[in-house]
Write a structure and sequence with these properties.
D-Maltodextrin-Binding Protein, domain 2; 6-stranded mixed β-sheet; single chain; 37% helix; 2 domains; 295 residues; alpha/beta; 5-stranded mixed β-sheet; elongated
Length: 295
């Protein structure tokens, strides 16, 4: 058998041995590729029923969803999702914490399987993700300095006094304020709830608006701010939050909704979410996701 030699004249593997090795590697590559293709073709519902690990995408936005120690998925939306996934067949999860603005792009790119941030159902979002049925009716709150020195109790109060309103980037409050005639330079947009409260504390904005559960949690241990009481809810239809799925996972959405129907408002659910400030008043009012998507 002819031996191959390298550039320095040293004996190397025989031609036949190398060809055998190359053939073996080719077979292995085909097998691995086939396995990977099979795994990637598995639907989300199949993964759940098989007890596979499900990746939950969420940001740091208490009380809806936020990371605990070692990125443990905390918050009311994560609690609800874990309960429902368990009923469907899996307790294995992998938290993927990201910026709020990267949630939908991350879901579309396959970085995670679900968005458990409790994002609002919006017609423009309905073409990018599939939403579960609503899990909560969103109510707003107005954060003001302690004592509410400007006497602010509505969007109109802030606008009429020429003051600055702060809210989260991309939040519904931005469009609401614009629709009510706020000047663009009187609408401050920041990353999220902690930044909203901070802007009010340091005087960069006269008031901040975001969802009531998050607002209550943000101010409960901060003596320098409070919630405006009373606060007139803005005009227009109510907002609803939900779990978001990839566009090609309708079967998983249907299975999730089937469990959600009996779970909503149950003693089990309220025990899971009560510690995060979710009460009976936050339960959905019967409006469906399809109705919200058609607005």
């Amino acid at each position: 058998m002819e031996k191959w030699k390298d550039d320095h004249g040293r004996n190397t593997l025989s031609r036949r041995a190398i060809l055998r090795g190359m053939a073996a590697l080719g077979i292995a590559a085909v097998a691995i590729g086939s396995m990977a293709s099979s795994a990637s073709a598995q639907s989300l519902l199949e993964k759940i029923k098989n007890g596979d690990t499900i990746r939950l995408g969420f940001s740091n936005g208490p009380p809806g969803a936020y990371p605990g120690e070692n990125n443990e998925p905390l918050g009311l939306v994560n609690a609800m999702t874990l309960d429902i996934l368990k009923k469907l067949g899996t307790t294995k999860i992998e938290p993927v914490v990201t910026e709020w603005g990267a949630l939908i792009p991350g879901l579309q790119a396959g970085r995670f399987d679900l968005i458990t941030d409790g994002i609002y159902i919006k017609p423009e979002r309905c073409s990018n993700v599939l939403f579960s049925e609503p899990i909560a009716t969103a109510k707003s709150a107005l954060v003001v300095p302690k004592g509410n020195p400007e006497g602010l109790h509505s969007y109109d109060d802030v606008r009429d006094k020429g003051l600055t309103l702060v809210t989260g980037s991309g939040y519904a409050a931005v469009k609401i304020a614009q629709g009510l005639g706020f000047a663009d330079d009187k609408i401050m947009q920041v990353a999220g709830p902690p930044e909203i409260v901070q802007a009010v504390k340091v005087g960069r904005a006269a008031a901040g608006v975001f969802d009531s559960m998050s607002a209550k949690r943000q101010v409960e241990n901060d003596a320098s701010v409070e919630l405006a009481d009373p606060f007139t809810q803005p005009p227009g239809p109510s907002e609803y939050s939900a779990i978001a799925f990839p566009l090609n996972e309708q079967a998983a959405v249907d299975a999730f909704n089937a469990v959600l129907k009996d779970y909503l408002g149950s003693d089990e659910m309220m025990a899971s979410v009560g510690k995060y400030g979710y009460g009976k008043g936050n339960l959905p009012d019967g409006t469906t996701t399809a109705e919200v998507c058609k607005r």
